[in-house]
Design goal:
120 residues; elongated
Length: 120
């Protein structure tokens, strides 16, 4: 087996061309077009069964092939499942709707991260 060495020709961090934030969250835009957005969101609605978060991205994505990750940021003693078919998204917004399985709901926030290609 051979090991290949890859030379790094740019200093670490040279790929980031813009760091920013607005009322929707924070973002990092890279020279190759990659975009990372992140932030925290309070629930949009809670009806006793479904917990909804409607998240507007702090920067527009090129298309809807970006990936979204999330975690509950605080509180809560419930088991939630993502509700099938409810990860609705566009280049500027995504909706996460969770189904309450067990427990008692305590106000919680959602931390999110989205990674994809930036709109040009």
């Amino acid at each position: 087996m051979s090991i290949t060495t890859i030379a790094v020709t740019k200093p670490v961090g040279a790929g980031i061309i813009e760091l920013g934030s607005n009322s929707y969250g924070k973002y990092a835009l890279y020279a190759n077009g990659m975009l990372i957005c992140w932030g925290t969101k309070t629930p949009t609605s809670w009806d006793g069964t479904y917990l909804s978060f409607h998240v507007t991205s702090p920067y527009e994505f090129a298309d809807t092939t970006y990936a979204v990750g999330w975690s509950f940021a605080s509180g809560g003693s419930m088991t939630f499942y993502i509700h099938n078919g409810t990860l609705n998204y566009s280049t500027t917004r995504f909706d996460l709707i969770f189904y309450k399985n067990t427990g008692t709901y305590t106000q919680t926030n959602l931390s999110f991260i989205a990674i994809g290609r930036a709109a040009t």
